[in-house]
Amino acid sequence: MFTGIDEVDWASLRHAYGSAEDVPGLLRGLASADPAEREIALDGMYGAVHHQGDVYDSTLACIPFLFALVGSRAVEERGGVVELLVSIGQDGEDREAASDTYAMACTAVRAGAEVFARLTGDQDPEVRRAAVGALVRFLEEPERVLGLLRERITVERDDRVLLALTESLGVFARRHPGYAAEAVDLLTARSAPSFGPALRLAALGQLAGCAPERLPTDLVTTVVRLLRDRSERPSGRSQEPDRPDTDTLVGHLRRLRPSDEEGSQLLRTLHSALDDRVSDRIALLVGQLNSPASTDRVNAVWMSPGLMREWRADYREPVALIGAQLAAPEDRLREAALAVLEDLFELATPAADHLAALVESRPDLWVRQWERGAPTLGDPVKALARSGDARAVPVLAEVLDGPVVPNDLGHVITHLGPAATPLAPALRRRLGDIPLDSPETYDRATPLLAALAALADAESVPEVLRLLLGVPDGLRLRESVVESAVRALESFGAGAYAAIPALRGLLDTGSAVAAAGALWSVEGDAAAVLPVLVRELTSGRGRRAAETLGRLGAAARTALPELTRMTGSDELWERMAAACAVWRISGDPEPAVPVLRAAWAQNPHTRVPIATCVAELGPEGALLHDLLHTELTARRRHQAALGGYGSHDIHADEQLLRVCRGAVGGV
Q1: What is the structure's pLDDT at 235?
Q2: Do 318 and 305 form a contact (C-beta atoms < 8 A)?
Q3: How far is the C-alpha of 57 from the C-alpha of 61, rounded, in Å?
């Protein structure tokens, strides 16, 4: 297996962490008789040699030895090594154009694909399961591949391998449309009642992706019934072999897998294939969330965020059902529901009663203690407050009066609006208790300042000034603390009159833009702030200076030449901010509209500030109302095409929709 391994100059090759001289040890570890050593070696291969899908020169050097390993029956658990080869080759295929290294990886795995054909008949079902997927992806003989799949699907008896064969038929049909007809026929046959529910679900998921016209007309009803039939026969589910309990990333990810990973994968495949058939996908979730089997409900809960983050729809029914899972006796189900509801913000409103009941009955969940790091607000309280429900206010008041205030509490309060006004005295007191010279000042102060700013609590001016004037130079993130304090003063408007001297003192510092904006809010003296903001347009803080100048309106006319120049900036956000400012100051849309249209199309993240600008312009913004109308009729969330979902994506999209509705009078 390892002939020639010592002849490779591994020290001259690289992986994610530098020299690849440790790679021979990892390769030999994959052939160890010790299961734990094999898993540690596989973890090392993914962690260094194929780190996050990257391919290095050491990755290429490993491929011949990996093929030798999977071809030897003396090596145990070769299925994981086959999967590693598939990952290396597939990442190479997906990113073939990125570099010669990726192209070479894909070519090398294709060159060895004959091994996968032999392994489809291996004695080890885990090897067969991995091999059928590799066969379809890398053996470039469609007729032969189809023949092997046809043969294997008629003789195979292992449930997990049968599911892999079904998935492979779907992949084959999509990769080789000229040969797809027989693969589709095989899938259609396996969706019939003569087969078990798991195999039928797998076949339906693949048909949805390659031949949706073959799906039954009552798809949702059929799938929900099959899911329940499958759950009623747990003994029929194929089980993954036992693995060692190692302290590796591979082991950690395995422990994080859902208790019913097979069911989760079946549902994920079907949802992915159905894509924009949102009403069908919602109906599937509703059916599964009503299932008597808790594993089905857990899978549905975890499936819901991907749908809700990508598509705009009426989610009241599934959200209410997710909320109902909070009363389930299984911790895993409750924790899954909380994790989802926490990121839904205002969309969690249909679950608010369930959240409030959990919050009331479980004070132990109000604050979450961590083994390392500061405590945070408990998920039930956070989800309830983020939904805007006032029932969170008394609980937050108790937490504020407690011995430890979670640092994220202030940011959560901002979602409660005026309902959180009774919390202002406690917030002021807590802000006044923060040491001025502590390394934790930033972490503790900025969330409280954000909350007081959201409440426009002018009575907190003394506490804010204490922080603004007292934080010593050299403190960790001092400038960020100062700017947070200044933004709070800005929100107080004329109520922060006592802060004017302090704000004027910041006009020659790195916080000049924030201070000028606050001064404008407090005293409305354009002469005091205009020279500062014009100066800052070329300081590296041009975007923020332009945004503030836009607030001055006609009083900032002398800044128009510089702002007009900035509309041609190489930096998108500067162009956008300058265009909004020019339009608001001059009332002339001509230099602004083309810039804003281009920014709207180029980067969806710009849409909230652009829509806000259009809304503030009132009737004058009608020239861009077509963009807002189009956005309101779009089914897909504005950031969905960017990929990489974040916890605030739904909230940002709902904010955009609210602003657009307000600007165009509702749709």
Answers
A1: 47
A2: no
A3: 6
